[in-house]
């Protein structure tokens, strides 16, 4: 146990709000802050974080304490490890933290598995250099992955004889149990990556915890990639590719690119950008979102340009926004090539130029959904409008507001006045008065009881009845661009009738 003076010093130089916020989204409430408690199945924020008292407390499960206690419980680590993490988050340095009695203590069974993975990586790197690895080396060179990149990113080769890896690891005195827990071998004890190029995967703190292996020869069975399974130390949702390398560079640059695959990360490295990471998929877990939050910089979303990649961009943007992580989106401008392809086809300058084109989440959503609106029915287009209403409502009246109205109208095919009515109709009565200035004039309270408005609504309902029964009324609606003012749903119903 560290001495009391050191513990007190770490706590004195830390802020519990900053510590908790690096793991969870925290919202201010009164003099305190609240968040969902991670120590029980919490549906409503029940954990309070007090900066004044420098403590956290859950009033449902009873868990509480200081910043070190929070990290200890959240990460399930020893007191020493938790204290080191608090010091790291707080940017506090003390020579005593490097003393022998503060060295991290790992579970022995976990340490054994990490050692298995380290020895396997040494073997894969060696195998890439032997005659059998010649074809793998040729393939890597054809992809522009030279020796420097192979070393930096831990690229290797697993021999075709799938029994060799286990034999080597057992010769290194590793138990069969530890080898199995590493995820390297399948049920029969053979290497699951045999005959493939291997890419080492690292935990956020830089330890090898798994592999992803790529086929490179024609006729090779299985999928394009074979990945480590969920295992003793590898949990895909707890990792981001290249995070340990990108962490210091991102804090210096003030930004970090989030991509889909590690070939894209390597492409950015070749272009001179070392603050890039990959999700290795199109979804982010809560743990991964918190890892991004810990970078304390702008996240630049640069997922693939195909539909799944663009849809994932929208979802991830929502996650980051909810977690309070600043982000922007790289503008593909219809280019569906990934960074690796752009680099190989047009060079470094073209890739950097693409990466520097950024747009807001609203602009991205407008472009993405607007391109699809032509194939949507009226109901789907109405739902599309509803997606954009939050952006519209947070914009003050004026030129920008009118521009947004016009752009949403162009993208969805609805008249801008109908969209304006939708934005107004769903504004809650308890919103501040300035929220009623959307039209540029104050919306009178109690307007729904206005006699003139009631008469207008009745007239509109009567007209819609004739639209259903008379082709002439329908044609009149089309020819004269009739606008409904009594109720925003009337415009939607009329459009349904027209459709």
What order do the helices and strands come in, and which of them pair?
Blueprint: H1 4-12, H2 16-21, E1 27-29, E2 32-35, E3 47-50, E4 55-58, E5 64-65, H3 67-75, H4 79-90, H5 108-129, H6 134-142, H7 147-152, E6 155-157, H8 164-171, H9 176-181, E7 197-202, E8 208-214, E9 225-227, H10 243-253, E10 255-259, H11 262-270, E11 276-278, H12 286-294, E12 298-301, H13 307-323, E13 327-330, H14 339-346, H15 348-355, E14 358-359, H16 361-370, H17 378-393, H18 399-412, H19 416-425, H20 451-469, H21 471-480, H22 488-498
Parallel strand pairs: 10-11, 10-12, 12-13
Antiparallel strand pairs: 1-2, 2-3, 3-4, 4-5, 6-7, 7-8, 8-9, 13-14
Strand order of the largest sheet: 1-2-3-4-5
Radius of gyration (CA) equals: 29 Å
| Strand proportion | 5-15%
Largest sheet: 5 strands, antiparallel
Question: Helix tally?
Answer: 22
Fraction of helical residues: 40-55%
> How many beta-strand elements?
14
Shape designation: globular
Category by helix and strand content: alpha+beta
Query: What are the segments in which pLDDT stays under 50 over at least 5 consecutive residues?
Result: 101-105, 427-453
Mean pLDDT: 84
From the N-terminal CA to the C-terminal CA, the straight-line distance is 73 Å
What is the chains' assembly state? single chain
Q: Any overview of this molecule?
A:
- The protein is of the alpha+beta class and 499 residues long.
- It contains 22 helices and 14 strands.
- The strands form 3 sheets. A 5-stranded antiparallel β-sheet has the order 1-2-3-4-5.
- A hairpin with a 2-residue loop joins strand 1 and strand 2.
- The protein is globular and about 90 Å long.
- The protein starts with a helix and ends with a helix.
């Amino acid at each position: 146990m560290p001495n009391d003076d050191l513990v007190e010093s770490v706590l004195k130089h830390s802020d519990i709000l900053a510590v908790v916020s690096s793991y969870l989204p925290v919202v201010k409430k009164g003099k305190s802050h609240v968040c969902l408690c991670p120590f029980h199945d919490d549906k409503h924020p029940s954990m309070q974080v007090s900066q004044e008292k420098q403590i956290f407390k859950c009033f449902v499960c009873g868990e509480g304490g200081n910043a070190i206690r929070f990290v200890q419980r959240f990460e399930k680590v020893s007191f020493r490890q938790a204290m080191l993490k608090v010091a790291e988050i707080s940017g506090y340095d003390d020579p005593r933290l490097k003393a022998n009695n503060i060295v991290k203590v790992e579970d022995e069974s976990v340490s054994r598995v990490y050692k298995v993975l380290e020895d396997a990586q040494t073997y894969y790197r060696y195998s890439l250099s032997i005659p059998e690895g010649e074809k793998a080396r040729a393939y890597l060179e054809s992809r522009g992955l030279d020796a420097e990149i192979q070393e930096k990113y831990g690229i290797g080769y697993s021999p075709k004889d799938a029994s060799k890896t286990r034999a080597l690891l057992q010769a290194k005195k590793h138990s069969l149990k530890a080898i199995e827990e590493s995820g390297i071998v399948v049920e029969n004890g053979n290497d699951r990556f045999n005959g493939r190029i291997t890419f080492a995967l690292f935990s956020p703190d830089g330890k090898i915890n798994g592999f992803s292996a790529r086929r490179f020869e024609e006729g090779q069975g299985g999928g394009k990639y074979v990945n480590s399974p969920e295992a003793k130390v590898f949990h895909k949702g707890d990792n981001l590719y290249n995070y340990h390398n990108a962490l210091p560079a991102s804090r210096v640059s003030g930004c970090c690119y989030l991509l889909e695959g590690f070939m894209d990360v390597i492409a950015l490295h070749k272009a001179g950008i070392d603050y890039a990471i990959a999700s290795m998929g199109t979804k982010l877990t809560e743990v991964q979102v918190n890892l991004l939050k810990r970078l304390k910089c702008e996240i630049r979303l640069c997922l693939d340009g195909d539909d799944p990649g663009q849809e994932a961009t929208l979802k991830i943007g929502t996650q980051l926004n909810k977690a309070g992580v600043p982000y922007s989106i790289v503008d593909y401008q219809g280019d569906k090539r990934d960074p690796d392809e752009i680099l190989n086809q047009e060079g470094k300058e073209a890739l950097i130029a693409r990466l520097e084109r950024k747009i807001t989440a609203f602009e991205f959503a407008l472009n993405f959904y607007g391109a699809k609106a032509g194939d949507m029915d009226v109901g789907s287009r109405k739902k599309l409008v509803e997606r954009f209403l939050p952006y519209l409502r947070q914009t003050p009246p004026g030129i920008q507001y009118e521009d947004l109205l016009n752009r949403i109208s162009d993208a969805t095919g609805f008249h801008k006045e109908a969209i304006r009515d939708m934005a107004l109709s769903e504004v809650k009565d308890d919103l501040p008065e300035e929220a009623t200035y959307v039209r540029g004039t104050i919306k009178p309270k109690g307007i729904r009881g206005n006699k003139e408005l009631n008469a207008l609504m009745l007239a509109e309902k009567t007209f819609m009845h004739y639209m259903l029964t008379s082709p002439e009324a329908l044609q009149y609606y089309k020819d004269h661009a009739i606008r409904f003012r009594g109720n925003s749903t009337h415009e939607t119903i009329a459009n349904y009738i027209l459709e």
